[in-house]
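Internal tracking record. Fields below are filled automatically when a chain is submitted to the structure queue. Please do not edit lines marked as system-generated. If the sequence contains nonstandard residues, flag them in the REMARKS field before resubmitting.
Queue: standard
Priority: normal
Entity type: single polypeptide chain
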Amino acid sequence: MSFSSRVKNKLWLGRKHLPIPGWLESIAKDPRGWLESFPAYRSLIGLNPQEPALKPLKNVLEKLLDYAGVVPGLIVNCIQTIHGVSSDVNGSSSAEELRKRADPYLNAAASNKEKGLYKRLAIAHNETMNVPELSRWMTENTGYAASSGASWIVEKTNETVQQMRQAIENARDAAIEAAEQAGRSVETAKNKFESLLNQIREFVVPENARGLAAVAPVAAPTATFLQTMTTAPVVAVVDAQSQFFINAMLAQTFVEGSSFIVPATSKVATAAVTKHYAVGGAIAARSSCASIISANASSVPFVTSVTGTSGATWAFLLPYLPWMVLAALIIIVAVELSEEEEVKTINASFLYGAGYKTSAKPDVVFAGITHNGNEGFIEEVRQLALEMIDKRGEYDSLVFFGAGSDRRPEAFVDATEVKTNPDLRPVTKEERLQAEFQKHSESFVQ
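SYSTEM-GENERATED OUTPUT FOLLOWS
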């Protein structure tokens, strides 16, 4: 279902305690126009293109407008998660109980699809965006943040609060009118709604607002040897990227004592990304967000809906949605670009392979190349990999290098899962190729 089909009378799923503000509908209707005018995007795209640490991110940002069509789906994913978080927080579970709900989903064995996504996420993190180097640069150059979302977030939070206030007042007036028409006392209905109205408090930013220190992500581990991985690494690397970008975009917004906003909002963005790729992790991210909100309930503006259900989480998280969507979109575009990593024509004359098993010397093979071109090279790797597995059994890791006539590496292929995932992808990017060759070179020394 689309965003518009879920919104009825400016209410999510037609529910009175889940108002959808006009600015959110505008983003969904014109995502490209929103991106072009969104200060956070304009600030990032305006960073110095000559700075080496920024070039990878600039390449990703320049492609964002081509993926604007993804935005409405990300909005739906975020709102679904916020709705779920709100329901979780409204329940009777403690913050610790909510946190533990994530464990079964994080510890579930990763599917081949999740393993494949993790590999692409690791490339996006370490190479396509080079987040570790980008983080170091931003930590050293604190003046990069050109836009603060503080006033906007406060304004939109309070708009949502006022929408809920109006809904309560309308319900109060209707209840009073119904009581009068039935000849009943109006005091009971009036007092009930007045009590709800008195509990509403607006969200304010203290005068001593100051930016938080930038987070500094480390390199995402390569997935080459993660044969027994769970869903947790997928969630962890998306969450690290989400936290980094949300913090970078809103560095001047968060205030002392509100640092929980970064991990809370990043969990919503993480859920949006995993939902986009239809992999596990969304429920774990949602439960983690609910745990964070529950543990910091005193910092969330209290809002009670017309039904008496707390709308605090909904009113609190919704204004951050533009930044959550932008962070999720940056990650998705980086992943897609990692898939499009430049692959040069492979001119290999020789093929080296190494199969690794725990507590055993590697099995090493060497063969001449008879097929030409990239597809022919991949077919040679596939056939040789299957032959090794048939003869020696499954390997913890099975990798191949193609080398030219000068014995220099031309391409690297991880064929560990060739039997279950025969869609092998060569790596030809020089930096990563050299790193992988350095890692495995001793195996080929006879």
